[in-house]
Amino acid sequence: VTVATRMYSKDGEAVELNESCNCVGQVESWLNTLKDCMVSTVRHELTEAVSTYEEKPREAYLFDFPAQVALCGTQIWWTIEVNMAFARLEEGFETALKDYNKKQINQLNTLIKMLIGDLSKGDRQKIMTVCTIDVHSRDVVARLVTQKIENAQAFLWLSQLRHRWDDKIGHCFVDICDATFKYSYEYLGNTPRLVITPLTDRCYITLTQSLHLTMSGAPAGPAGTGKTETTKDLGRALGIMVYVFNCSEQMDYKSVGNIYKGLAQTGAWGCFDEFNRISVEVLSVVAVQVKAIQDAIRDKKSRFNFLGEVISMIPTVGIFITMNPGYAGRTELPENLKALFRPCAMVVPDFELICEIMLVAEGFLNARLLARKFITLYTLCRELLSKQDHYDWGLRAIKSVLVVAGSLKRGDPGRPEDQVLMRALRDFNLPKIVTDDVPIIMGLI
What we know:
Blueprint: E1 3-8, E2 14-22, H1 27-52, H2 58-61, H3 67-90, H4 96-116, H5 121-146, H6 155-158, E3 162-166, E4 171-176, E5 179-182, H7 198-212, E6 216-220, H8 227-237, E7 242-246, H9 253-266, E8 269-273, H10 280-298, E9 303-306, E10 309-312, E11 318-321, H11 335-338, E12 341-345, H12 351-361, H13 367-384, H14 395-411, H15 417-429, H16 438-444
Parallel strand pairs: 6-12, 7-8, 8-11
Antiparallel strand pairs: 1-2, 3-4, 4-5, 9-10
Helix pairs in contact: 1-3, 3-5, 4-5, 5-12, 9-10, 12-13, 12-14, 14-15
């Protein structure tokens, strides 16, 4: 077989390429052609998605396109519709934003009802992802209403990721504050997206501003605050491939330099996890490497000298580092490296909000109340039960329980929602609770 006609993502979604691609000859040449085919396919699908959005109900529209394209299309139209509501406000329709918010709530409820029904695994993931983003867009519009904002230039609106489609040149752009990024059309498959909390929003602004100023971003904070995930999620929103590298003491300047060389030539983002594990003498050389890349972007060069070798440069490249402060075996970053990265402090996120939105995405209608009960239970567990090494009452554990609750809910749709959630909590947690703690947790549940 020498011709590629469709691409598959690792979650099993298939997308037909809009023109078939010959896979013959040298691998480095046809792989590049294949990459161009991928970009043109995603862009072609997105053109279709933007133009046909209003032709049929939204829930039917979502099934016509690949997940990534459908999601991006709904985000482009969200921006259009909010801007239209602002325009109507200026014309004197005082309830324009309120009306749009009601419309959003109806759209979201339609999607939640679909999640309870029978969907294939891929379709369910797709609807869940759209739900997750929808909840956030609903909350943004609700905040615009409660703060009585009447103008599209308000910071609350400008600080959101706003996707827009430019008809003249046929490209998608993403605006946030005063920074604009061209969408990269990397085919990412049917991936789940993060729940967007105020913390995520703030981190997005810091990371995008640092790219806008051709610097790099450095989220720092304790484990489990979503530093890496937020970076990956921003990449998904901009259609860029993000590679995550776990740093260790073994890394020397050559191995880090090789990674940077690859990122600069492909224009992908690299997220270097726990960067401050690398030893100090390596970091000072790394600073010079990062500086070389940033200078090349600043001077808009297409080729530049990287450590004595002239390589090509794609300016979408981004280098992000995450740091866990104050563990043993971590170093302080040298000053010349600190100057290249904009820090962003990450704190423990709003568990209740995340829990609520994940319950919505699993098809629970009464999510807000259940989320409050759930988080109260986990907080009490953390405080009242004995301290065992294998206990985990954090974000990852919460996520696992919610997935179990979702599958129980679909297995028995008629049962009251609070019973389903309590059953999931009981089944999931009892096996790992030590005997002395069993009566306490049963009393709490």
